[in-house]
Amino acid sequence: MLGFLKKPVAVTVEINMNLVALTVMGLISRLWELSYPRAVVFDEVYYGQFVSLYMKRIFFVDDSGPPLGHMLLALGGYLGGFDGNFLWNRIGAEYGMNVPVWSLRLLPALAGALCVPLAYQILVELQFSHCAALGAALLILLENSLITQSRFMLLESILIFFILLAVLSYLKFYNLQRHSSFSGSWWFWLLLTGVACSCAVGVKYMGLFTYMLLLATAGLHFWHMIGDQNLSNVSLMCHFLARGLALILIPVAMYLSFFYVHLALLYRSGPHDQIMTSAFQASLEGGLARITQGQPLEVAYGSQITLRNVLGKPMQCWLHSHTNTYPIRYENGRGSSHQQQVTCYPFKDVNNWWIVKDPGMQQLVVSNPPRPVRHGHIVQLVHGITTRYLNTHDVAAPLSPHSQEVSCYIDYNISMPAQNLWRVEIVNRQSDTDVWKTILSEVRFVHVNTSAVLKASGFLGASLPEWGYRQLEVVGEKLSKGYHQSMVWNVEEHRYGKSQEQKEREVELHSPTQMDISKNLSFMAKFTELQWKILTLKNEDTEHKYSSSALDWITMDTNIPYWLHPTSGAQIHLLGNVVTWASANVAALVYACLSLWYLIRRRRKIHDIPEDAWQLWVSAGGMCVGGWAVNYLPSFLMEKTLFLYHYLPALTFQILLIPIVLQHLGDHLCRSLLLKSMFSALIVAWFSSVYLVYRTFSPVTYGEPSLSATELKDLRWKDSWNILIQKQ
C-alpha cells in the first residue's frame, strides 16, 4: 500500500528560455533608472492629481474613461506610502521627498515590460515559428515610443498589456478547442479572455475596440462550429453558454466592480461634486451632506426649500429671486412686465429659499401633522425673503423671446393679474400618488394657466446683462417643445417652516434644520449617474501645442516633448523607432496586396499556397490587421484632442504583423536556396538598422545622457519634429 514511497517524488519543469530572456530584457529596458527624472513628466501632471485624490479618498470625475487605470496608478502610490500631498500644477515640477516616484511608475513599467513576452507568445499561438515570435518580441522591446510611454505614470502601457493578454488568452483557448474542450485549461484561458477584456475597457474606452474584435472573432468561430455535424445540439448550447458567461457576463460584472471599488474608496466630498445630482452629493461625506444633514424627507405645505436645476450646465444653479425688477424696456426695444426678477443663481444664497404654499390657505408654516405634497398637486411658490409669488405670463422672456418671462408678482394695480399656480409633476415617480421628496424627487413645475414649464435656459450659455447681475435666465417653456433636464428641479435644502411672521421667518431661513433623514443611494443608482457623467461630460477641448491628427501618426510626422531638464538640456520625447514604423506600414501594404492577389487567383481556382498556409495567413493577418484597424480608424471620428500616444495600441498590432509577413515571404516566395539566403541576410541587416535607430534615439527615450545642441539637431530627422534646443 505504501509502495509509492519507495521512489522519490519528482517534478519535471519545462522552461522556455526564450520567454525568460525576453522577460528579463523587457524588465531591464523599462525599469532601468525608473525614478529619473525626478520631476513631473507630461501627463503625469494630469493623472497625478487623481492619485492624490485617491490617497485622500476625495471623490472626482474624469471624463477620459473608467476608473481601473487610475486605481492601478493609485495602487502604486499606496504601495509606496504616498500621502497624496503634492501640487500637480506644472510639467517639470520637482517631486518632493514624500512622493514615491519609483513606486508610482512601477505598474506602467511592469505592464510595458510584460508586453515583450506576450508578443512572443501571441506569434507562437498563431502557429508561426519561434524565430518569427522572437522577432516580434524584439521589435516591441526596441520600440522607443513604447519604452517612453511605459516608464511614466501613464495608462497606455497598461492598456496595451491587457489588450495583448486578451488576444493571447483567446488564441490559447481557441487552440485548445480542437482537442480539449471544457478542460481546466480551456476554461482558464476562456475566462482570462473575458477578464483581460474587461480590464482593457476599464483602463480606457479604447480597449472596447479590441474587445469588439475578439467578440466578433469568437462569434465567427462559433458560427463555424454550428456547421460541424459532429457536435450535438446540447454540446453547441454548452459552448454558447460558456462563451456568453466568459465573454459577456463576467466582463460586465467586472466592469461594475471597478466602479464599486472606485465609489467605495472615494467617499469624501470634493471639488468635482457640483456636476453630480444633489442626491449623489448628499451620499458623500462632507460637502452637501454636511449642509443637508437632518433634513425632513417629505416636502409639505409650508416647507422652506431651495430648488436646484438638475441639468447642472453650464454650472449648477438654484432658483433665485431678489428685489430688483426687470427693466421696463430691454436694449432691443422690447418691453417687460417690470416684475421682480427670477433667475438661476450659481451660488448658495438666502435668496434661493422658497416656501411651498397651499393655494387654498394663507399660512406659510407646516401644520401638525405635516400635509405632504404629492404628484399632481397644485402649489404656490413664495419667495422666502420678499414674500412674492412665483409667476409667469404671456410676456416674452428677456433673452428667449419665444418663451415666457418668469417673475415674482408685484401688483401694480393694472390689468395684469397674478398667475401663480403651479402643478407639481414628479418625473422619477413610481406611482401617481408619490410624495415629493427632498433630494430624491426630480420634479417639473407646470404653470396651470399657460401649461408652460419652469425652465433654466442659461444652459445655452447666455446670462442676463448687468441689470440681472449676469445670472442665468429662467423662463416658462411650452410643453409642446419637448422635455429637457433644464426643466427638472430637485429640492436640495429643506426645513419645515414654523414662523408665520416675516422677520422671524428670515431668521429661520438662516437656521439649521433638526430632523433626520437618510439619503443613501444604491450602488446602481450612483453607478448609472457617474457612468452617464463620464460619457457626456465634455471638457472644453482646446488645441494643444503638441496635439496631432490621425494622419500624422502613420508616418510619424509628429512627436511630443515630454520633459526638458532646466539646465543641462537633457530631454525626453515620445518618438518612435523610424525603421520599425516604416516597416510596419510596408508590412500592412504587402499584406493587403498579397491578400488581394491570392483572392483573385483563388477565384480563378489557382492556389498559389497550400490551404493550411492560406488559413494561417488569413487568421493571423485578420487578428493583426483587424487589431490595427479597430484601434486606429475610430480616431478619425473622435472629436477630442488627439496625441501621438493614441496610436500606440494600433501600432502594437501592426508591429506583430511584420514577422508574419516576413515568414510568409521566406516560406512561400523565396523558393530557391540562394533567394532564402539573400532574404535572411536582408532581415539581419534590417534588424541591425532597427537596433541602431533604437540606440541613436535612446538619449531622448531615457532622458540621459544629455546631448549638445549639435547632437540634438542631428536627431531632427524630420522638419516637423519638435526637438527642444536651449539657447546658450
Q: Kindly report the average pLDDT value.
A: 89
Tell me about the largest β-sheet: 6 strands, antiparallel
The gross shape turns out to be elongated
Number of domains: 2
| Weakly predicted, low-confidence segments | 512-518
Number of helices: 20
Instruction: State the separation between the terminal residues, measured CA to CA.
Output: 86 Å
Which structural category do the helix and sheet elements fall into?
A: alpha+beta
| Proportion of residues in helical segments | 40-55%
Radius of gyration: 33 Å
Question: How are the strands ordered across the major sheet?
Answer: 9-8-5-4-1-12
Number of DSSP strand runs: 14
Question: Proportion of β residues?
Answer: 5-15%
Pathway: Protein modification; protein glycosylation
Organism: Caloenas nicobarica (Nicobar pigeon)
Pfam families: MIR, PMT, PMT_4TMC
Family: Belongs to the glycosyltransferase 39 family.
